[in-house]
């Protein structure tokens, strides 16, 4: 752990904690490393989702009723 690391208390469900400890032991990593990686990946996924929302912001939208009518007109319903 480096000097800029911050400490936090996290409460895991017992089964998750056991699985996490076993994975840490079997991969020669710390629980902190595994948790940091998981949080980093989750935040990265959020960032990617938000980028897609921004890209699609100018796309036209349709109501549910319009969607059903479109599906019907194309023989899908």
Automatic annotation (TrEMBL):
<dbReference type="GO" id="GO:0006355">
    <property type="term" value="P:regulation of DNA-templated transcription"/>
</dbReference>
<dbReference type="InterPro" id="IPR046765">
    <property type="entry name" value="Antitox_RHH"/>
</dbReference>
<feature type="domain" description="Antitoxin-like ribbon-helix-helix">
    <location>
        <begin position="11"/>
        <end position="39"/>
    </location>
</feature>
<dbReference type="InterPro" id="IPR013321">
    <property type="entry name" value="Arc_rbn_hlx_hlx"/>
</dbReference>
<protein>
    <recommendedName>
        <fullName>Antitoxin-like ribbon-helix-helix domain-containing protein</fullName>
    </recommendedName>
</protein>
<dbReference type="InterPro" id="IPR010985">
    <property type="entry name" value="Ribbon_hlx_hlx"/>
</dbReference>
<dbReference type="Pfam" id="PF20605">
    <property type="entry name" value="Antitox_RHH"/>
</dbReference>
């Amino acid at each position: 752990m480096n000097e800029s690391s911050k400490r936090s208390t996290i409460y895991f469900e017992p089964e998750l904690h056991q699985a996490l400890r076993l994975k840490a032991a079997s991969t020669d990593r710390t629980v902190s490393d595994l948790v940091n990686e998981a949080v980093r990946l989750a935040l990265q996924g959020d960032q990617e989702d938000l980028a897609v929302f921004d890209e699609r912001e100018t796309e036209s939208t349709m109501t549910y009723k319009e969607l059903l009518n479109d599906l019907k007109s194309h023989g899908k319903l």
